[in-house]
Amino acid sequence: MKIKKIEVENFRLLENIKCELENDITLIVGKNNTGKTSFFEAIKIATSNDGKFIFEDFSQSSYSVFKTAYQKYLEIEKETSEETKDELEKQLISNTPKIKINFEIEYDKELNESLVELNEFITDLEDARNDATISISYEPKNTLRVFQSFDNREEKSIELIEYLHKNVNHLYETVCYAVDKESDYCRKIEDSFVAKIQKVVLFESIKALRILDDIKSDSNNSLALGFSNYYKQRDKKNNTDVKELENKLEEVSKELKIKYKKVLKNILTKLESFGAKTPIAIPPITIDSRFDSEKVIKNNIHYLYRQDEINLPESYNGLGYSNLIYMILELSSFIEKFKNSKEEKLSNFLVVLIEEPEAHMHPQMQQVFISQVTEVLKEAKQETDLQIQVIITTHSSHILSESGIDTDRGFNRIRYFNRLNTESGFKITNQDFNNLKIKDDKRTFRFLRQYLTLHKSDLFFADKVILVEGTTERMLLPQMIKKSAPSLCNEYVSILEVGGAYAHSFREILEFINVKTLIITDIDSSNEKDGKCPVSEGEYTTNYTLIKWLPKKTKISELVNCKLKDKIQESIRVTYQTKENGFNARSFEDAFINTNKNFLLTEHPIEQGKYIKDEFHYLSNPSIDISNKIPTEFSSKQKTEFTFDIMSFNEEYGNWKVPEYINEGLIWLAKND
Question: Using N-to-C axis directions, what is the helix angle for 471-484 and 588-595, rounded to 10°?
Fold first, then answer.
């Protein structure tokens, strides 16, 4: 038994999100403010008694829907035909905003799973069906009364949204339904639906401890808390070691009781005489000694790190180690608790929510964490055949690389939450990587897996992406961004150096996640006679990105005269060298020299007897006069020197300019339209 899909409607940032879960680990990733935390909060509120929905939980997009529903209510009030009134009332009930969280559960008949607890939520017993949907809805107690109460409000100056904000808890309630996903039939679950859900699925959550402090006065004792929770949940009935510990503590308690009475005998005698000659009678005081083993584990035991010849307190070690151990202990504790509840038939399967576990952990430790989670799940499955699903929200490219990009599974564990601009504001979407289709699947996936694992999994967390052809562009891009589009400095921009021959391999994945992307590449002009040649002599391009992706043109004449609309496809744009100062460069270096001739030839002194032009000594070949002719070929060494020379120049030496084709591309990328 497992959760196949979770749907959230009208909850905070999540207007309508559907998220299918893997059998083991599901990774929810995406840039900041895309509803990942909201997704977890919706699950927690819906499946526990600890919290409740409030008006602030409604998505902002629902405010306009409330107003439209009120107008429908006014139509009903004016209508005289009962038949029309009934129809309008049905529309009103259907359209009035509700917060909904649906859990689609799938069971395996061949495994003869017990359906006693799930039976309450099963709506169709046909042999072909093996699903049940639990729907939690925060909805009006009486839809008409919601708007009637607003109409009858005493303070007429209060508008609808403000009124609902103050009164929604009296007008709305949280209810639960068993839903047939194929027919939309639903049956209300009466009485204690949370307890009934927990008999089917046990939800637990782990948050990285951000209150940890690595100073000597640290009193949080995260290891003590973790070990205490684990001890509390483990099986005590059939464990002889636990029984021996409990018996030993009982013996110590009896001995201490005797000693306490001796030590406190005098004060107890005095207390007995207090109030003896007054109307006040003080009740007799006696002393007992009790040890709670769970409190001993938490407060009495000191957890130390072994270092050479001495043991160091927990606070002497890094926060990352404490966090790592704490979260693995918490996961193990939940599994132990689930084992016990399984025997008592309290729940059928376990779902653990882990929110941003990477806090305080360096990259290697993040990878260790996710590998340990995988190992714990495997052991639990092998030992007891328990069904456990883990959902992790993360901003860690290392966790993603370790668990989300798998040789056998591909990217299938990844769920990408994205924030897209719309006419009415924005909308959160979820891309399930099971639906990603890649041409030449094996070869392209092998390349993407190697590249993203070794270099840039942060592609999945970026606000925007830039693909560049070579090292020169990549190293100079931060400075070019500051010059051309400084607002990009406030966004998380992932810069991928992919080369002209491999950029198109990213096409499917970038189009799939729909992140705004700028491709900076070279026009790479060639002809039949000379091969590589100046653009003015070029017949065709050898650049795969321009040929296979954008703008899908081969001839140099077509590329030179290409319209802007042909360089853009939805959220992706390509930019390459165009004519500037009467010259069309072939490469970035050519374009930079052409744009900055005056700067490169200046005799402004850098130091005594040395000028800017002297730094570019590899351009001072007697056969090359850069005031008239731009070099078309650079060696790798020259490209490296070229890059470092530019990076070393302070603005006081002169203000170099960004080549126009890159400048235009960065300005386009910076726009949030």
Answer: 40
Q: DSSP for 113-181?
A: ---TTGGGG-----TT--EEEEEEEEEESSHHHHHHHHHT-S-TTS-HHHHHHHHHHHHEEEEEEEE-T
Residue 261 burial (C-beta neighbours within 10 Å; 0-12, 13-18, 19+): middle
| Integer Cα distance of 73 and 291 in angstroms | 64
Q: Residue 147: its pLDDT value, please?
A: 96
| C-alpha–C-alpha distance, residues 197 and 211, integer Å | 32
What letter represents residue 122's amino acid? I
**Which runs of consecutive H residues, i.e. helices, occur in 429-470?**
441-454
Give the CA radius of gyration of the chain. Answer: 34
Asked if 4 and 105 touch (Cβ cutoff 8 Å), the reply is yes
- Three-state DSSP class for residue 19: strand
Counted residue by residue, the chain has a size of 673
Residue carrying the six token digits 């002809």:
527
Residue (of 516, 512, 514) closest to 433 by Cα position: 512
> What percent helix, strand, coil does the chain show, rounded to 5?
45, 20, 35
Write out the two tokens for 395.
């901003």
pLDDT at 270: 56
**pLDDT of amino acid 543:** 94
pTM: 0.81
Residue 200 parent element (H or E): helix 193-200
Section 378-396 average pLDDT = 85
> How deeply is 465 buried, as exposed, middle or buried, from its count of CB atoms within 10 A (0-12, 13-18, 19+)?
buried
User: Which segment, 222-226, 286-290, 379-383, 666-670, is predicted with the most confidence on average?
Assistant: 666-670
Output the CA torsion sign for 138, 144, 145, 146: positive
Cβ neighbours, 10 Å, residue 117 = 18
Helix (H, G, I), strand (E, B) or coil at 206: strand
Instruction: Please state whether 568 falls in left (phi above 0), alpha (psi between -120 and 50) or beta.
Output: beta
Using H for helix, E for strand and C for coil, what is the string for 594-659? HHCHHHHCCCCEEECCEEHHHHCHHHCCCCCCCCCCCCCCCCHHHHHHHHHHHHHCCHHHCCCCCC
Closest C-alpha to 596, from 575, 581, 576:
581
29 pairs with which residues across the strands?
416
Strands annotated E in 229-309: 304-307
Peptide bond into 551 cis (omega under 30): yes
Short-list 292, 405, 380, 404, CA closest to 328: 380
Going by C-alpha positions, the residue among 427, 423, 449, 424 that lies closest to residue 436 is 449
Numbers of helices and strands, H then E, in the chain: 23, 26
Q: Residue 626: CB partners within 8 Å, gap ≥ 6?
A: 593, 597, 600, 601, 619
> What string of H, E and C letters represents the secondary structure of 358-389?
CCCCCHHHHHHHHHHHHHHHHHHHHHHCCCEE
| Parallel/antiparallel/unpaired status of strands 540-541 and 525-527 | antiparallel
Tens-place pLDDT, residues 138-167? 999 999 999 999 999 999 999 999 999 999
In 378-446, beta strands by DSSP E:
388-393, 414-422, 425-432
